[in-house]
Amino acid sequence: MTDTPTGDAPQPVYPLPPTGTTSPQLTYGLLFDIADALVRNGFPRPAGVDWAHLMLSLDRFLYQENP
Q1: Which of 32, 33, 48, 62 makes the best surface tag, with the fewest CB within 10 Å?
Q2: What region does 30 belong to: left with phi over 0, alpha with psi -120 to 50, or beta?
């Protein structure tokens, strides 16, 4: 069991506060790195509109509140 020193569960870091603009960290280089990680773990490489879906999914994970 990995409790924090106070015994409280760690709080999630994501989603981050919205920036109001496109995040400079959310780049094609980051998408390609994520795609490479997927391939290394046995998933097919994104193709066609997969890239747009991957970018949108990453943006939702990073910045949008869960309902």
Answers
A1: 48
A2: alpha
